[in-house]
Amino acid sequence: MSDIKYYKIILGGKGAEVYPFELNTEQYETLRDGGVEQDELDHDQICEILGVDTFFDSPNETIMGPYPDAFFVRVEDEEGNVVYQSEDLDSDRTDYEEQYCGDVAYLIIEDYCKGEHVVYDIPLEEEFDIEKLRFKVDDIGCRVEIVSGILYDEKEYNIYKSFGDTSSKGYYYHLTAGI
After folding, report:
1. pTM for this model (two decimals)
2. pLDDT value at residue 179
3. CA dist., res. 23 & res. 50, Å (int)
4. Lowest mean pLDDT among 13-17, 132-136, 146-150, 166-170
5. Distance (Å, rounded) from C-alpha 65 to C-alpha 161?
6. CA distance 93 to 150
7. Would the pLDDT of 103 be above 90?
8. Measured between alpha carbons, how far is 177 from 31 in angstroms, rounded to an integer?
């Protein structure tokens, strides 16, 4: 049996943390008529309409990651040496999935941020091979695309996933017209 080697895979750049909220007809119309997409409602007004204390209270999974057109990936070995890095997302190594698109209306809250969004510390029994790395891109509400994760050698490593250090640069609001 070979020795286990740990590699840190960092996805970063300009991106977002996205909070999807399912809406009923009344919430949708109140947000639309109040100009939420034009930034005419403040945080407290939006939370009141949604019936929550904060955006973090979304009952749906928060999705975080860099935008596909403004991302970087960096792979480091156990000693912190960079074994691979790139600022180009290879579409041949990308799995694309729509989330929160369809017949149901959502408010998609996009917290625009910069930094290291997602960090994986994965154990491998071999040297890191870039050809085995794939990226998961989520299209959230058919409005915001995020590189939200990886596959390595066709395996998910979500138990080794953590969130990195980012700084918020502001919010964007998107209504999906499911109603």
Report:
1. 0.87
2. 47
3. 8
4. 166-170
5. 12
6. 10
7. no
8. 12
Q: What are phi and psi of 116, to 5 degrees?
A: -95, 105
- pLDDT tens digits, 124-156: 999 999 999 999 999 999 999 999 999 999 988
Look at residue 173 and tell me whether its pLDDT is greater than 60.
Answer: yes
Strand partners, 153: none
Written as one string, the DSSP assignment of the chain is -PPPEEEEEEEEEEEEEEEEEE--HHHHHHHHHHTGGGT-S-HHHHHHHHT-SSGGG-SSPPEEEEEEEEEEEEEE-TTS-EEEEES---GGGEEEEEES-SSS-EEEEEEEEEEEEEEEEEEESS---GGGEEEEEEEETTTEEEEEEEEETTEE-GGGEEE--EEEEEEEEEE----
Centre a 10 Å sphere on the Cβ of residue 2 and count the other Cβ atoms it contains. 7
* pLDDT tens profile 47-69: 999 999 999 899 998 999 999 99
Which residue matches tokens 């510390």? 121
Find out whether 129 and 163 touch, Cβ atoms under 8 Å.
no
| Contact between residue 55 and residue 111 where contact means Cβ atoms under 8 Å apart | yes
Q: In the numeric block, which tokens belong to residue 43? A: 């945080």
